[in-house]
Model the fold of this input.
Amino acid sequence: MFINAVIALLLQAQTSNLPEHPVANTFKPLASPGQQEKDIAILTLAITGAIFVVVGGLIVYGIWRYRRRPGDVSTQEPAQVYGSNQIEAAWTVIPILIVFVLIGVTARVIGSIENASPPPSTVKVRLIGHQWWWTVEYPQFGVTSANEIHVPVATNGSPATYLQLESVDVIHSFWIPQLAGKTDLIPNRTNYAWIDPKEPGIYLGNCAEYCGTQHANMLLRVIAEPPADFNRWADEQKRAANPDPALARAREIFESLACVNCHTIKGTGAVGKFGPDLTHLMSRQTIGSGVTTLTHEHLREWVDDPQTIKPGCLMPSMQLTNEQLDQVVAYLESLH
Done:
């Protein structure tokens, strides 16, 4: 047990040393889908920028060229031109051609992203949206986590990560700006997306579809690690919970509460599916789907009354005494 705890702490330290990439920096993509989307955005901005310059220049030229001069008769109208076939053809044909170019390029990029086939060795992730958090499942490894997606860095031929996107309640939207565009998670429908981070780091994202009062706090992290580190993390996550025997009383108190009806802790009687899997809670960086960092103080406040941190969330206050609260928090902190 001591060795497992040490390994977990080392993995957590490695993760904390990864650089954190800022949210919404779509013009610094670090994955293939994001790069392709940036390229088409630059093309669109270039075309529309050129249109703006041409139209604006013509307006300025018209204002200057046909301005009123000294000696002009105030009631005199300029020469009126009607029925110029050349002008009408130009302002009809040119915009149509521009629209077709943008449609064609957009369709090609969307097709190349959505039709990309996963290689046999790819990492597959099932991402399920809830109000207001994420279930993260790795079917290949038998691992379930929450709110943080660990993936291998796609370098030197390493495969991309393919995501199966689902929702259990309302429409959510997966969006990691530096990795890929937005893809909706729709109830009773399965969508797909893929990412191939080129650099190790922590990529921040969020739900991009309004899904309720805490939509803004439905945050998400993609933690891209070298393949060896990712495999070590996956191996550690497969293990059942193995808390300190000295915390037997704390575990007993936790298992006596309604927490076990919503949360799963492998190796215990807690097998609930309505809330995040807590088996390796302390291997994560945040709680409440990124709403706050995972520290002793924040965890204690969260367990005491989640509504003070995330009003409207489905986790109720259990009205614990101070002794029960201390014991439950101590037990949760042993789950590495």
